[in-house]
């Protein structure tokens, strides 16, 4: 690993909900889905601390960063995050990304490896392989159309979507994330060398079995595919099993 200054405190991009894991041997960094925020991973942090130091990424344009402009391309997000995360790689680091977060985690991992930092592992959840392409344009819909897609995937609490004031606040971030995810196009390059674990729901409308298997071509390291009952947010009902997979890897 490259020589670097280890940060003492988290900043705008990084959240640590349970400081008890600071001295853990392994670090887990979690990337939220489109429209999501760092707090989505609070239960993961609670479950895995102090065995691991769990950090969650907070994208601009939401919650305490809601007054900051959103970044609406995976490239911009990955460039910013690679610089933010590199100092945290003072110990074995594993990424976990769900949906858009899986694509973003992959692109950050590519940037880190190009600089000499290899991850301990990457969990790609609820997302097709980077090299597979779909013509998706939900980000171009009006507000009602965008909310309809979010509701269909059940990624946001229905009570939140029923509050017009909250919806008005979060829609710009959701639209920016959808734009980032839907306009992303993989640029060919060297595959990763770290272990790659792909997790998917058996009824996820956004990931076919073939699209999930295609992740294998993106690493020369160990690869495993796990399929769980459920849709795009299968991990809400399969939290115990998913945490077990992560714990086994970190352990």
Could you walk me through the main structural features you see in this protein, from its secondary elements to its overall organization?
- The model has no long low-confidence stretch (mean pLDDT 90).
- α3 (100-114) links the parallel β4 (93-98) and β5.
- This protein is of the alpha/beta class.
- It has one domain: Alpha/Beta hydrolase fold, catalytic domain (Rossmann fold, 3-Layer(aba) Sandwich), CATH 3.40.50.1820.
- Helix content is 36%, strand content 15%.
Descriptive terms for the model:
251 residues, alpha/beta, Rossmann fold, single chain, 15% strand
| Spatial strand sequence of the major β-sheet | 1-3-2-4-5-6-7
State the major sheet.
7 strands, mixed
β content, as a range? 5-15%
* Number of self-contained structural domains: 1
CATH C-level name: Alpha Beta
Could you say what the CATH architecture is?
3-Layer(aba) Sandwich
Alpha-beta classification: alpha/beta
Helical content band = 25-40%
**Number of H/I helices:** 9
Number of strands: 7
How would you state the average pLDDT, rounded?
Answer: 90
Task: Return Rg in Å.
Answer: 17 Å
The CATH topology comes to Rossmann fold
Distance between the termini: 21 Å
The topology string of helices and strands comes to: EEHEHEHEHHHEHEHH
What is the fourth-level CATH superfamily?
Alpha/Beta hydrolase fold, catalytic domain
List the uncertain runs.
none
C-alpha geometry: globular
